[in-house]
Specification:
46% of the residues lie in helices and 28% in strands. It is built from 4 helices and 5 strands; from the N terminus they run αββααβββα. It is globular, with a radius of gyration of 14 Å.
């Protein structure tokens, strides 16, 4: 299955799952594309728009911590396929693909394993 089909399935999840706020992609040169936002979110779109427009700054802060670990063990572990960054108000799931990164914004007060398993199952 190609990654565009998988991305379309996650976009569909945004429309039907209450636990998922939004999804977008980051291409190989670092540009954000294809923002899809759930219609019935319980807070303003400003948080999602802020993450979407400032994703490089937000995600790179956490990458520094992860890079310190993976730089020393990347030969053993290989490249990361996905990761979850948890904040007080939102979770950010990053799915790393060969030509892009899919970013899914998830409610923070949900069952993490069920939500992430569901998203990764679609991908």
């Amino acid at each position: 299955m190609n990654s565009n089909t998988s991305y379309d399935k996650i976009k569909h999840l945004v429309e039907i799952e209450d636990d998922i706020f939004a999804v977008f992609t980051i291409n190989s040169i670092g540009d954000a594309n294809g923002l899809t936002v759930a219609k019935n979110i319980d807070f303003g779109n400003s948080l999602i728009e802020n993450i979407y427009t400032n994703f490089n700054k937000i995600l790179k802060q956490d990458d520094k911590i992860i890079d310190n670990f993976t730089n020393s063990s990347s030969d053993l572990l290989g490249k990361s396929k996905w990761k979850v960054i948890e904040y007080e108000k939102i979770r950010i799931l990053q799915i790393v693909d060969k030509d892009k990164t899919v970013v899914v914004l998830i409610k923070s007060n949900t069952s993490l394993d069920e939500t992430v398993d569901n998203i990764l199952g679609y991908y």
